[in-house]
User: What shape does this take?
Amino acid sequence: EDQVTQSPEALRLQEGESSSLNCSYTVSGLRGLFWYRQDPGKGPEFLFTLYSAGEEKEKERLKATLTKKESFLHITAPKPEDSATYLCAAPHSSASKIIFGSGTRLSIRP
Amino acid sequence: DAGVIQSPRHEVTEMGQEVTLRCKPISGHNSLFWYRQTMMRGLELLIYFNNNVPIDDSGMPEDRFSAKMPNASFSTLKIQPSEPRDSAVYFCASSATLAGFYEQYFGPGTRLTVT
Assistant: This one.
């Protein structure tokens, strides 16, 4: 069964304290891994697409990496405005739809 | 661009009433998605349209739910009759297939409360 699992469920960091969020997947013939950011009361906002193991993408303080079994979202020297829920997703192996993970709720204290 | 537009933003209704949620996708996008988000189940795809045609409705929970896309700039999701367990945030998203099917742009959502 295709699955996308995120950990931890919640993460609280001090401003400037770097860390990583994990997304593991069991999807046959992976056709991409996607990261979204969701702020309270808003819809998810697309961040990155990764297509192959070893690929990396960066945006400001965020860097997404991909291996054959998992993806990491590294956050370097985070600021309070980086507080949000981060969702990862992957295309279903046999259907034209995306499977979303349950998200990591990131909170950055000033 | 105004982004994906959804209305209403909030809807409170009584059990048994009909509810209609509306979505205007980004101009030029030809794929449209309806999602439901709850604390218990996370973000779930309900139905997906491509070029106004429903492609996959396997996520629609039951016959009480229906969706239409009469033209490229408008879609509706209807629940009739509504039940308390339908309470959730409903998102509409669109994507431009040629630019990347999975790079979806979400609207602000409709928070539905059924009492």
Observations:
- The mean pLDDT of chain B is 92.
- The interface with chain A takes residues 4, 42-45, 48, 55-56, 58-59, 91, 93, 100-109 of chain B (CB under 8 Å).
- The CA atoms of residues 15 and 115 of chain B lie 6 Å apart.
- The two ends of chain B are 36 Å apart (CA to CA).
